[in-house]
Amino acid sequence: MDTSQSAPPTEPLTEEQQGIRRALRDLLGEGAGARENRAATATPEGHDTALWTRASGTLGLAGLTLPEEYGGAGRGTVELALVCEETGRALAPTPLLATTVLAAPLLTALGTPAQRAELLPRVADSTLTCALAAPSGTALALGLTGDNTDGDWSGGGRAGGIQAARAADGGWRLYGEAAQVLDGHSAGLLLVAAHTGGFARSRTLLFLVPADAPGVVRTRQPALDPTRPRATVQFRDTGAELLGEEPADVLGALAATGRTAAVMLAAEAVGAAAAALDRAVERIRPHERSGSRHRLADLCVQVGTARSLTYCAAREPGPGPDGGPLALAHALEALRATADESLAWEDLCFKRAASDELLFGPARRLRARAAERTGLLGEEAA
Hints:
The protein has 382 residues and is an alpha+beta fold. The protein starts with a helix and ends in an 8-residue tail after the last helix. Helix content is 49%, strand content 14%. Strands 1, 2, 3, 4, 5, 6 and 7 form a 7-stranded mixed sheet that branches.
């Protein structure tokens, strides 16, 4: 039983979209099995660099949604969701989330023409990986669990967070630390959210910092889910380049990126849940009691509902779908539920669900945020 086919997205996939799914599943089937994934997470990079290069070269994964003028494939959120579902199905460790889902949209939305021309082609051809370094956690910076316009998460003019200050030469210097930075130990470029301006002109800006810049100290952290490698990144009087030009709606760009990222995280969770469910179905013997079958039927409905919500959100128009956090909440719960039926492989699914809730949730806060944004909480939300 292939639950990815039995519970399709809410609208029929085009032949091209089906081709993307098939090609990526074949590729990951060859290079992202359980043994290959364990070996990849143990490398200094935390992923199989050859597999990432191959996937980017043949399928355009790294630049899937980037404009064609920068070497990207110019695809939309549905295609990216399909890709994330397949990487989630294989629990493949790749730079897809940190680079393609989080960093590339920010570079596109905020970068100057020169910055985009320099950086985006390198992202698209997989020679540059990126990481978003945000103090107080990525979920707050992206507005997934609350309003990111509160500057406290980036430093708020007080000690802590990451502070940006003008240097004598007119450049910028960064001071501070960000923990739980996805791919922060291996990315070639850091996008750093930092606070500047003091109390009167308090604001959050994004800065570009090469990972090998003087004053950058990166420490890989132990991770509950080894396929989600993270690091603590310190900035000790580190030179930085402002991303874009002032004034810019940095917080709006972060929030729009966060709503889209929620859809892609949901797609990954749906893929992992579907794979775990397929394995559970295969273990059922004809003589086993009906209670087991009913439980699996309930899980199939739960996974299918999460998939439908995910692709409904992926098809929403506008800068970042409002349905992303709600889809992610349902998908994480579906993944946790299927992982409860675990054997050895599904234990990795449980770790993925728990890790993603720690990094981007929990599910109840994602639901509350979705209700607030869509007005379902009425006056209480205000």
